[in-house]
Structures are given as C-alpha cells and as structure tokens.
Amino acid sequence: QVQLVESGGGLVQPGGSLRLSCAASGRFFSINVMGWYRQAPGKQRDLVAAITSGGNTNYADSVKGRFTISRDNAKNTVYLQMNSLKPEDTAVYYCVAHGREDPLWRDRDYWGQGTQVTVSS
After folding, report:
1. Among 22, 25, 67, 91, which is least packed, fewest CB within 10 Å?
2. Does the pLDDT at position 28 exceed 90?
3. What does the alpha-carbon distance between residue 54 and residue 32 come to, in Å, rounded to a whole number?
4. Alpha-carbon distances, residue 61 vs 37, 64, 67, 79 (angstroms)
C-alpha cells in the first residue's frame, strides 16, 4: 500500500525555521513530481513548492527566497526547508507525490495526511 508520511511540523516564532519531511513508502513504479501544498483555515489548498525528479523547482511567490524544496529520489523523500517564517505561513502542510504504482497506469496524485505549522509569538 502506497503511503506518504509527513513530519517536522510544529510551533515556531516569527523569523524562525522548520524543516518538513515527507517519505513515500510502498511500491511506486515512478514518481515524477513531489511537492507541498498548504491550507489555512477557511482558505483553499494552495501550492507552496514542487520539484521534479530531475530537480526542477517551482515556488509560490509568497515563499520565494524563504523556502527551499529538495528531494532524495533514492528514498522517495521530499523536504521543505522553511526559513524566516511569518504568521501568514500558518497552515496545514500537505505532501503530494505525482506518479504511478504500475507502468500501465496513468500518473495520479497521492496525498499525505498533513502536518500543522503554526507561526506565532
């Protein structure tokens, strides 16, 4: 059974840092893109950052220069280093992997359960 497990969330003061991790377990045939979304209360789920298997990255404008996404393809793990955190970064952060379990299947999105990040003094 394919599963994404996130870790690293928590409470941090403004200006602080956190590092999120997400490990994809199970029998993936391929994972093309891994990324992070976030959802604040009463708001839609938005893309934070994404990275391809080749290392190309994409960031939301609101996090450029503060967040860094990286990936270990051998471990099917993606990381999100978050620096200079602001209260508006408070949200549940969800990991996503876009890939397939079987070579004959189409790619689909696999989601983690989410991890809470709270930025507050």
Report:
1. 25
2. no
3. 8
4. 13, 5, 10, 18
